[in-house]
Design goal:
7-stranded mixed beta sheet; single chain; 1 helix
Amino acid sequence: QVQLVESGGGLVQPGGSLRLSCAASETIFRIYTMGWYRQAPGKQRELVAAITSGGSTNYADSAKGRFTISRDYAKNTVYLQINSLKPEDTAVYYCGASSRIGIPPSYWGQGTQVTVSS
């Protein structure tokens, strides 16, 4: 059974940091490209960052510099470190698993809410 379970979201003040986690079932984690996506109210879901099974990364232009994606092979977990949070980062963040970069995810997590507000 494929499972992607996100955690780590919450309410944070502007300028703060968060680390989101996505725990995946082993089979998916070992083979698939893992990505973080976000969907703000009234907007389409968009890719934030992705990392292949080999560790190559890809970032949306808007994510370069403040977002870092990584994966822990021992824990079957993908992380998204977000620094210098801005109110416009407020969104539901989803973890997705794709057969390769550039392909929409075949599997999705349930999402975790990130709210940036003072």
